[in-house]
Please model this.
Amino acid sequence: MRQPLVAGNWKMNGSRASVGELLVGLKAGIGQVTTAEVAVCAPAVFIPAVQAELDGSPIKWGGQDVSVHASGAYTGETAASMLSDFGCHYVIIGHSERRAYHGETDQVVAEKFAAARAAGLVPILCVGETLDEREQGITEDVVGRQLDAVVAHCGIDTVGSGVIAYEPVWAIGTGKTASPQQAQDVHAFIRGRLAAADPAVADGIRVLYGGSMNPKNAAELIAQPDIDGGLIGGASLKADDFLAVCSAANR
Ligand code: 13P
Model:
């Protein structure tokens, strides 16, 4: 039985004041609402504050990106060991915004996955097609290619120690959610693709859905057999909304 995971991706949002308020709200509410695992992925600069507030609570935290390099002259980058040092459990890898706006290729994403694992972090690997790719009927080609690159570079066992997030690019921040069936179909494809390499890994790995998931649509999505939780953007910025999504992930 896979324990659902609900992870917030704050993206580049927040201030010391708003982050403080959000964390207090989450801590106060989380005990009562869910049996799912819960995490927040914060901008790097807020991670010390997140650690200070969440240490000792059931909520885990993580980063949104990581360098492929271990340390050195890489201005502006954050090393995986630095995230670990501040208590991060997770790190998002290969988010479509990184792929689209920062030129991250499948190879770079695979190297970041490896760097995260080497520092003991659990990578949340994002995959997903654009609207154009969906309309061309090549969703499985794209998602398969994105997965295969990481399996080829890191090995199936290493991939199995991470989490996958299916995030159709056309559903991110648009208010347009994939239907539960559309999402389930791609989640089943992802599990099948991994099963070809190792059925036990495919069975055990959590595959999250991301893309305009909110308190209204979360329960129906998470009820699908291959959807093991969510990666939440906009709805993770308000404690009440995020807690409502967490409670929809009760199993
Ligand atoms: P939204 O929930 O704002 O659509 O963002 C989803 C996402 O990109 C999470 O990583």
User: Anything to note?
Assistant: The chain has a mean pLDDT of 97. The first helix runs from residue 16 to 33.
